[in-house]
Design brief:
Blueprint: E1 2-7, E2 10-15, H1 19-23, E3 27-31, E4 35-40, H2 42-46, E5 52-59, E6 63-70, E7 73-79, E8 85-90, E9 97-101, H3 105-113
Parallel strand pairs: 7-9
Antiparallel strand pairs: 1-2, 2-3, 4-8, 5-6, 6-7, 8-9
């Protein structure tokens, strides 16, 4: 799971607990202008194939965490519970998408959308 925070025109994604080990990352900082969309999408995490690990951890039904190459995209994952999954689409970043579990998906989406341009 991750925690999201916003400051200085950036979104910080803090990876919590042992997920730092499984994801091979402790945090990510994304300029808000590089986020093109954020949405709730549990279905994306319910599947068993999440791409090729580069590096990452994948135990189907338990955890997907780390960097994956999927459908021509570089994707960062950190999901245990697919029902709390949000997807962020990015431009001009190391990752094309962030697929992460948050404690309250509706609140996370509302928080991020409130500071983005009206286009999403």
């Amino acid at each position: 799971m991750v925690e999201l925070s916003i400051s200085n025109d950036s979104l910080t994604i803090n990876v919590k607990g042992a997920d730092k080990l499984w994801a091979f990352k402790g945090s990510l900082e994304i300029p808000l202008r590089h986020i093109t969309n954020i949405r709730l999408d549990p279905s994306i995490a319910h599947g068993w194939w999440h791409g090729i690990r580069l590096p990452g951890t994948s135990v189907p039904g338990v955890i997907t965490a780390g960097t994956f190459y999927q459908s021509g995209k570089r994707v960062f994952w950190d999901v245990h519970n697919p029902d709390r999954t949000v997807v962020m689409e990015l431009n001009h970043e190391e990752y094309n998408e962030l697929i992460v579990e948050v404690a309250d998906p509706d609140l996370a989406i509302q928080m991020v959308k409130s500071v983005l341009p009206r286009q999403i």
